[in-house]
Design brief:
Helix content: over 70%
Order of helices and strands: HH
InterPro entries: DUF465_sf
Protein name: DUF465 domain-containing protein
Number of helices: 2
Structural class: mainly alpha
Largest sheet: none
Radius of gyration: 14 Å
Number of domains: 1
Amino acid sequence: MNTYLERLLRRHRRIDRLIDTSKAHGKQEDLKLLKRVRLRLKDRIAELQRRNNPILRVNK
């Protein structure tokens, strides 16, 4: 599971770089798509981190 999380983190960083590049070139549609993918990855990463570290869960 840890290697899967690491792959997601690397992919998230790669998409961040692509977003920065797209901003420079003014590719708005590509930028929207990349941001959506990045957000889904971020949510998945957070979910996996909570599962691996139950202390990080917020008590409600």
